[in-house]
Write a structure and sequence with these properties.
The chain contains eleven helices and eight strands. About 35% of the residues lie in helices and about 20% in strands. Helix 1 packs across helix 2 and helix 1 packs across helix 11.
Length: about 290
C-alpha cells in the first residue's frame, strides 16, 4: 500500500523544486515558535486528514552547513508523512548568513521547536510521546543533537522535554567531529567539542535511529556515521544505517537522480516507522 502513497508525492510537488528564502509554503499552517535575534522563527505544519486520533509528529531541519538553506527542502517529505498519518513539520532556524549565529544557536532553535510542538501537542492533535526529529546534513546533526546534547549547553532553561522519541537522519554531519584546537572549535561552533560531539554523548539511553547515507559522500565522510552506528548498537540501542552505493551528499532530495533515491529513502523511513509502531501499516488515505 505504501508504494501507492509514494507515487502520489510528485503530484503535489511539481513547481516547488527551487527553494526560496524567505520560504514560500502556502499549503501548510504557519506558526511562530520562537523570537530570537529580532526574528520571528516559524514552522509549517502539514496535518493528517484523520482528526479523530492523536498522531505522531516528524520535524524536519534543513541542511546548509549552518550558513544558509530553506525549510522548503523537506516539504515533500512532510506532505508524504501527513498522508501516512504523521503530522509533518518543516522548521526554520537561524543561520550564519542571515543571522550571524554559530551552530550552537542553531541547535538552540531546534530544541525550542521540539519543545513548542510538545507544548502545543493537544491543540495540534499530536501524541507528545511520539515526536520524530529528522533532517539532512547540518539539519541531520540538529535533529540528533536535539536528543544527545544537554539543553544547558545551548542555554535553554525551558523545562519542557526537548528530546525526540525517534530519529531519521539524512547524511547527517557532526556525528564524530575531528579533534581540533579547542579555542578554534569554540570560536567556530560556540561550544566545547566534548559537549556537542555526538558519538561521545551516546549513553545508556538513546532513541531508535535510522540513518540514510551515500557511500561516496565527499561532504560528510560515511565513516563517521558507521562509527556512530557501531557504538549505538554496541550499547544495545536500535540504530540502522542504510548505505546507498555510489550516491553523493544530498542524494535523497526531491529532484535528484530522477527521484529514485527520494522514493527509496521514504520507503525505508516508512518501514522503520512501522517497525517502531509510529505508522499504521494498514492506514489508507482518505
Amino acid at each position: 500500500m505504501k508504494y501507492i502513497f509514494l507515487l502520489l508525492v510528485p503530484i503535489v510537488c511539481i513547481g516547488q523544486i527551487k527553494r526560496n528564502y524567505p520560504p514560500v509554503i502556502e499549503d501548510a499552517s504557519e506558526y511562530i515558535y520562537k523570537k530570537a535575534s529580532g526574528t520571528d522563527l516559524k514552522l509549517w505544519i502539514y496535518s493528517p486528514i484523520n482528526k479523530e486520533v492523536k498522531t505522531p509528529a516528524i520535524l524536519f531541519f534543513y541542511g546548509g552547513g549552518f550558513r544558509n538553506g530553506s525549510p522548503e527542502q523537506f516539504t515533500f517529505q512532510a506532505r508524504y508523512f501527513a498522508n501516512r498519518g504523521i503530522t509533518g513539520v518543516v522548521v526554520d532556524y537561524r543561520v550564519n548568513s542571515r543571522n550571524n549565529v554559530k551552530p550552537i544557536e542553531c541547535l538552540s532553535d531546534a530544541k525550542a521547536a521540539i519543545q513548542w510542538v510538545r507544548k502545543n501537542a493537544k491543540d495540534l492533535n499530536i501524541d507528545p510521546n511520539k515526536i520524530i526529529a529528522s533532517g539532512g546534513s547540518a539539519g541531520g546533526y540538529l535533529a540528533a543533537a536535539s536528543y544527545f546534547v544537554d539543553k544547558k549547553v545551548v542555554g535553554n532553561s525551558d523545562k519542557t522535554n526537548e528530546k525526540p522519541n525517534a530519529l531519521i537522519l539524512f547524511n547527517p554531519g557532526g556525528m564524530d567531529m575531528p579533534e581540533v584546537n579547542e579555542d578554534d572549535f569554540i570560536m567556530r561552533f560556540g561550544a566545547l567539542r566534548k559537549d556537542v560531539n555526538l558519538i561521545d554523548l551516546i549513553g545508556m539511553n538513546a532513541p531508535p535511529t535510522l540513518i540514510l547515507h551515500g557511500d561516496v559522500d565527499k561532504t560528510v565522510d560515511i565513516t563517521t556515521v558507521r562509527n556512530f552506528t557501531k557504538k549505538m548498537n554496541n550499547l544495545g540501542h536500535k540504530c540502522e544505517l542504510k548505505e546507498y552505493k555510489n550516491e553523493p551528499h544530498g542524494f535523497f532530495n526531491f529532484g535528484r537522480s530522477n527521484n529514485g533515491p527520494f522514493y527509496h529513502t521514504l520507503s525505508v523511513a516508512d518501514d522503520f516507522l512501522i517497525e517502531i509502531g509510529f505508522i499504521d501499516p494498514f492506514l489508507e488515505i482518505k
